[in-house]
Specification:
By secondary structure, the protein is of the alpha+beta class. Helix content is 34%, strand content 30%. This is Muconolactone delta-isomerase.
Length: 111
Amino acid sequence: MSDSENKSELMLLTVLLKHDQSKNLEDIQAHMKKVGWWDRFPVEGTRVVSWTVAMGLGQIVTLELPPALLPLVNVELERSAWGVFRTECYPTYDFVPVRERIRERVKNGGQ
């Protein structure tokens, strides 16, 4: 993504990659290598905002992307994540600036 791209033209997408617990780590890593996961995901044109591991759940990836790339992200998850992860995707947004506006409004007597 270019530095000049307008932030308002971007969206956040949180992807839950829930581990298939019928597979062990070696099985998961072998599948990911076979399908080229590390080269294919995330797709070009997206930016990783965060990528965390939640023990007992799996991985939580938040991407920033132009909405037009959403179908490509979906297809790539189907191509390379399925088989080792159950996927859930949620359009998300950064609540910090909203929280700050609400906090300031309440501090000044509003709701």
